[in-house]
Amino acid sequence: MKTYKIALIPGDGIGRDMTAAAWSVLQKAAGNRGFMLDGTEFPWSCAFYKETGTMMPADGIATLRGFDAILLGAVGWPAEVPDAVSLHGLLLPIRKNFVQYANIRPHRLLPGVQGPLKASAFDILCIRENTEGEYSGAGGRIHQGTSDEVAVETSIFTRKGVERILRFAFEQARTRRGKLASVTKSNAQKHSMVFWDEITRQLAQDYPDVEVTSYHIDAMAARMVMAPETLDVVVASNLFGDILTDLGAAIQGGLGFAASANINPERSAPSMFEPVHGSAPDIAHLGIANPIATVWSGAMMLEHLGEQDAANAVMAAIEATTASGIGTVPGKDRTEAITTALLAAI
After folding, report:
1. N or C: which end of the chain has fewer CB within 10 A?
2. Which of 12, 17, 101, 185 is catalytic?
3. Is 242 a known active-site residue?
4. Among the three residues 230, 251, 272, which one is the final residue of a domain in this structure?
5. Where is the Isopropylmalate dehydrogenase-like domain (predicted)?
C-alpha cells in the first residue's frame, strides 16, 4: 500500500484541535482509497519556545526535509511570545528554506454558507509570492529607545522571484477561466512595483490565451467587495497577497473557511498546508473552532500528493456538511460535531 510521510505541526491554541480533526478526516479518505498517511507529530510552538528558547530545534529544517508534506495547525500566542518571534522562528524559515514560493488560497462560498456580500457566485484563486518581497526581513533599527531612533524595512524583489510566481499564476489561470489579475501599487512604489508590472507585461506575451489585467492594491480591494464574480486568478506580492486573502476569507464567510497551501512547484522539498486563521487563543479552550479551513487545506495536500480522488472526496464531504447547515455559522456548532459530520460524509 502506498504510504505518504506527513509531518504534523499542530502548533498553538486551536491549531491542536484543528489538526486532530483534519487528520481524522484525511486518514479516513486515504483508507477508503487504498493508500496510507503516516503522520509524525512535532511539538514546535510558542510553548516549545518558552521551554527551549527556539520555535523549533536547530535541525528542524533537516528533519522536515524527509517528509512528503507538512500539515500545520496554527502558530502564535502573542500574550506569551511576540508574533515577530513566532513567525520568524517557524513559519517563515520553512517557507524560505523549502522554496515554497507559491502561496495558494481559494476563496468561494461553500453551500449553505452566507457571506456578507450580495454577490455569491464568485470563485477566486489568490496566488501570493511567499518567500521574498516585503517579508524578506532585510533592514534594522538603530538608536533604539532614543528620539533619534530609525527603523528600516527593505523589500526585496528579484527578477527570478517575480517571474516564477507570475508564471505559476499564468499557468493556474490556464487551467481555470483564463483570466489573471496582477496586483501592485506602481503609481506610488516606482521601483519594485513598476518592476513587477514590467515583468507581467513581458510574460503575458508567452500566454496569449490568458486575459491579463493590472490593478492597484486599493482598486483590487474594492473590486473584491463590489464585483468579486469578475475575478479568476489574482497574483500579488507577499504583503499585498497576505492582506487580500484575509479580505477573501471575509467575503467567503470567515476565516473558518479559508484554506491555504505553501507550494514548492519544483517539488525539490516538501510543501506545507495550513489554514489562514491564526491560533485564536481566546477560544482555544471552548471547543467551538471550525475545522473546515484545516480540512480544506488537507484536501489541497492530497491533491498535491497526486491523490485527486481522495482530495475530491474530502471537498465533497465539506460541501455536504455545510449544505446540511453544519459548520456554516461561526461558533454555532462544536468542533466535534463538525468533525463527526465530515467523517460521516466521507
Report:
1. N
2. 185
3. yes
4. 251
5. 5-342
